[in-house]
Amino acid sequence: MSKPLLELENFSVCYGPVEAVHQVALTVGEGEIVTVIGPNGAGKSTLLNAIMGLLGSSGTLRLGGQPMARPSVEAMVDAGVGLVPEKRELFGEMSVEDNLLLGGFARWRRGQRDQKERMAEVFKLFPRMQERRAQMASTLSGGERQMLAIGRALMARPRLLMLDEPSLGLAPLIVREVLNIVASLRDMGVSVLLVEQNARAALNVADRGYVLEMGEVALTGAAGELMHDRRVIETYLGVGGNKAPLRRLRRLPLRGTTLLPGGPRARRPVVACSAAIAEACCAAFRVSIKIAGCACPEWFSDGFHIEIKVQGAQAVIKLMNIRLRYIRTICRFSGIHGDFP
């Protein structure tokens, strides 16, 4: 590993009396891409927000060997840390160019007038942003918004860029494009701390990885080693890494799948199904799926509500029938191969 840029020791984060992140030890080297994977609710986003100074924390945080005691957001930005949040948090009624200029405001405030040169570098990395520089951010596609969010963070010339779920809600082709750009940041000397639900995609671009479970580091190692770790394959790589889950699909109680009213948010239909089906769908969709317990009939003892985040009417239509036929179709569409009944 290269010289450490970010070091965490016994790093903990609490929400009131509840400890969300417990004594995490993590290191990101200079010019290195490190990914943090894990299930929903493991504390991944909380970890990034605490590093950025958005949440209180305890333990040791060092940046470039210098301790950062109770850092503020301003102090972390000035120290060369950038965050691309999960929801991108763009200014929708402002143009692409104005959003980028805001990303360089901290440097402008310090008297560094290199915004035009920096914007040219961002446009070189994201040519599509140059084409849409006068367009309102709210009119961009999901992939373009993610590119703009990354470009805005790069305007501050960060030494460390933290990305929270950059693939969320994006089509597989756009995910690959975005993550290829993330991989190219290594050549620019930017270190990357990547939180990602799509474990396979994240490990493909990362140098090292951490598996976070229940707020604690459960596994760590080189990305290639984690890709072949049996526990990671079965738990996080899903049907794409092992044919055993495909064989289990044959025995799923598919008769227990029921569409529930989606309410006013037509783009987020709610589906009730067994935990086994939920797990299979998570692997098939390769997107973030919010799972919460719900009351179900007696025959439906392990039921869940699944809120599937989708974009576009076509995706909504596909979600109207989660049966084995649908799981088979979506798996094949996503390039997941195996023996289906």
Automatic annotation (TrEMBL):
Q: Which Gene3D superfamilies match?
A: P-loop containing nucleotide triphosphate hydrolases
Q: Output the Gene Ontology terms for molecular function.
A: ATP binding; ATP hydrolysis activity; branched-chain amino acid transmembrane transporter activity
Q: Which residues form the ABC transporter domain?
A: 6-239
Q: Which InterPro entries match?
A: AAA+_ATPase, ABC_transporter-like_ATP-bd, ABC_transporter-like_CS, BCAA_Transport_ATP-bd_LivF, P-loop_NTPase
The answer to whether the entry has keyword Zinc-finger is no
Q: Offer one Pfam family short name for this entry.
A: ABC_tran
Alphabetical keyword list: Amino-acid transport, ATP-binding, Cell membrane, Membrane, Nucleotide-binding, Transport
Question: A GO term (biological process) for this protein?
Answer: L-amino acid transport
- Family indicated by similarity: Belongs to the ABC transporter superfamily.
Q: What is this protein called?
A: ABC transporter ATP-binding protein
Source organism = Ottowia beijingensis
- Classification of source organism: Bacteria, Pseudomonadati, Pseudomonadota, Betaproteobacteria, Burkholderiales
